[in-house]
């Protein structure tokens, strides 16, 4: 297992965001974000590369992973750790050809069939959602905790629950088996992203700590 996959196994908190100037990304990394995905769907290639290189430097300084959305062709130029693709984006085989064996590939899944299918293709992790309705995925129905529970039982890769994930429901997700989460607005729309990242990590850890405490009695 290479270092990227070791870090992926440890990862719990995954930030998805567009190009954001200033120290926002650094603050989230200090708060405990393990993976940052640059999702810049409608920006020119050079802007994606410039922002991606900045994100990659910050992530690597914090021993975190940097992923680029839907652009396997830009991964090497950015020095990203991998790419995340959707069901309708580049094929897994094409993405693997472009990023190579050492880098990571993530795949979005929205149904039990897609989760099962991800077990048979060359991806390193999957996203499961949207758990709740979210404006970042307009028109896509929420899958709820049922799919999270399905993934916890059937997914053979690490999975991140995504879609409307906030501090208020992170603990509930963890109890349903969603012990890794991906967030957008939970960090991009708060005044103190570093403190919020820490709070999200604590919410994910609470069920495990509770179970450990019960086991010790």
Overview of the molecule:
By secondary structure, the protein is an alpha/beta fold. The chain has a single domain (3-216), classed as TIM Barrel. The chain is 46% helix and 16% strand. It is built from 10 helices and 8 strands. Strand 5, helix 6 (112-118) and strand 6 form a beta-alpha-beta unit. It is globular and about 40 Å long.
What's this model, at a glance?
Helices cover 46% and strands 16% of the residues. It has 10 helices and 8 strands. 41% of the residues are buried.
List keywords for this structure.
alpha/beta, TIM Barrel, eight-stranded parallel beta barrel, 10 helices, globular
- Give the second-level CATH assignment, the architecture: Alpha-Beta Barrel
Rg measurement, Å? 16 Å
Q: What characterizes the major β-sheet?
A: 8 strands, parallel, barrel
- Report the end-to-end length measured between terminal Cα atoms: 36 Å
Shape verdict: globular
List the helices and strands and how they pair.
Blueprint: H1 3-10, E1 13-17, H2 24-31, E2 35-38, H3 45-61, E3 65-69, H4 75-78, E4 82-85, H5 92-99, E5 104-109, H6 112-118, E6 125-128, H7 144-154, E7 159-162, H8 167-175, E8 181-183, H9 185-188, H10 193-216
Parallel strand pairs: 1-2, 1-8, 2-3, 3-4, 4-5, 5-6, 6-7, 7-8
Helix pairs in contact: 2-10, 8-10
């Amino acid at each position: 297992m290479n270092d990227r996959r070791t870090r992926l196994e440890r990862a719990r908190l995954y930030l998805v965001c567009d190009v954001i100037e200033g120290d926002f990304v650094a603050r989230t990394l200090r708060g405990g974000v393990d993976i940052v995905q640059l999702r810049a769907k409608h920006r020119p290639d050079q802007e994606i590369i410039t922002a991606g290189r900045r994100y990659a430097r910050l992530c690597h300084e914090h021993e975190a992973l940097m992923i680029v959305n839907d652009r396997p062709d830009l991964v090497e130029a950015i020095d990203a750790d991998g790419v995340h693709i959707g069901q309708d984006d580049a094929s897994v085989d094409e993405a693997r050809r472009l990023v190579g064996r050492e880098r990571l590939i993530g795949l979005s899944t929205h149904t039990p069939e897609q989760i099962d299918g991800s077990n048979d293709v060359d991806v390193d992790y999957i996203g499961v959602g949207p758990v709740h309705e979210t404006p970042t995925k307009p028109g896509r129905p929420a899958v709820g905790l049922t799919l999270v529970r399905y993934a916890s039982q059937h997914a053979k890769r690490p999975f991140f629950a995504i879609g409307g994930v906030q501090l208020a429901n992170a603990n509930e997700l963890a109890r349903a088996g969603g012990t890794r989460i991906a967030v957008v607005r939970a960090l991009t729309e708060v005044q103190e992203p570093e403190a919020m990242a820490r709070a999200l990590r604590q919410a994910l850890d609470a069920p495990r700590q509770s179970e450990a405490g019960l086991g010790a009695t």
